[in-house]
Q: What sequence folds into this?
């Protein structure tokens, strides 16, 4: 008799449980769902947990689950729980839809930066009809991606399809056709020296916090730009402002911030060279999340290893 997986759901709270339940019943009727607090007293313990921000220490009440699935790409808020069960596999949110949304956002950001769209928006607000001719094309604007994992590689392929030269930098330097790949701190300056638009997609680890500071930004060519879609605590905002004001950098598109929501008194808001979006680069729908979760459960039920399995040694 085929086993029917039982999924206990915390993500979104009790007010969103029925939404999750209805979606799973439509796309995967062979997966049973249960509200996670009710699962503590269930005769059959859950096979999997779906969480977003469970109370500290609560996950330890489920020592027999096969895996824990998080509805976010970042899980540092989970693994900082001292009682977090390290022996249970933890899977981060992903999926092709999330990657496609990120790739399209980064493509938009790159076009916005090199075509000077921030200036157009500024002029429109002031009813100024003044032309600044941009004659370069995408093939003349090298884009460097810091963080060359699942999302970074999808972003790279989309940029290549739109004629941007692409460079990649990561700790291991996994190759990708058409991309000049750099690895480790010894090759970081060479990577930065060739990058006109820097895309931050680094994972959130102790090593990457404050990684993009004055030294990194200063190593970019004169007139370079940055797009931050990684984590807010990786970019030193004061250093970014200093280099924008000095003219070394010509623009920035920022989707994530050290403090969110971005405080009203932040100097980032009104800077003429900065475009801001409200942490919205790649937020897939609940249906997309559910489809990804179903794929992960199917992989685990077949004793496979999901692509975005959290690695305690690497920290992501």
A:
């Amino acid at each position: 008799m085929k086993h029917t997986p039982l999924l206990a759901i915390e993500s979104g709270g009790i007010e969103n449980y029925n939404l999750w339940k209805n979606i799973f019943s439509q796309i995967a009727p062979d997966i049973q769902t249960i509200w996670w607090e009710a699962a503590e007293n269930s005769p059959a313990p859950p096979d999997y947990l779906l969480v977003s921000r469970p109370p500290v220490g609560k996950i330890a009440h489920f020592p027999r689950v096969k895996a824990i699935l998080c509805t976010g790409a970042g899980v540092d808020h989970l693994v900082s729980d001292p009682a977090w069960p390290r022996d249970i596999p933890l899977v981060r949110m992903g999926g092709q839809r999330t990657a496609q949304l990120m790739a399209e956002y980064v493509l938009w950001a790159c076009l916005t930066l090199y075509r000077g769209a921030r200036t157009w928006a500024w002029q429109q607000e002031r009813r100024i009809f003044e032309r600044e001719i941009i004659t370069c094309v995408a093939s003349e604007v090298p884009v460097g991606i810091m963080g060359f994992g699942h999302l970074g590689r999808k972003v790279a392929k989309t940029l290549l399809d739109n004629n941007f030269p692409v460079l990649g930098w990561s700790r291991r330097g996994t190759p990708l056709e058409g991309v000049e790949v750099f690895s480790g701190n010894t090759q970081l300056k060479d990577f930065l020296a060739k990058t006109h638009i820097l895309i931050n997609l680094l994972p959130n680890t102790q090593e990457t916090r404050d990684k993009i500071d004055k030294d990194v930004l200063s190593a970019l060519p004169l007139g370079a730009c940055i797009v931050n879609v990684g984590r807010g605590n990786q970019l030193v905002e004061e250093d970014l402002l200093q280099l924008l004001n000095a003219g070394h950098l010509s623009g920035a598109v920022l989707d994530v911030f050290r403090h969110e929501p971005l405080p009203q008194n932040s100097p980032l808001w009104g800077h003429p060279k900065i475009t801001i979006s409200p942490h919205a680069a790649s937020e897939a729908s609940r249906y997309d999340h559910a489809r990804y979760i179903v794929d992960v459960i199917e992989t685990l039920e077949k004793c496979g290893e999901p692509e975005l399995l959290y690695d305690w040694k690497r920290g992501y």
About this structure: Residues 96-114 form the longest helix (19 residues). Residues 17 and 234 are 33 Å apart (CA to CA). The chain has a mean pLDDT of 95. The chain has ten helices and twelve strands.
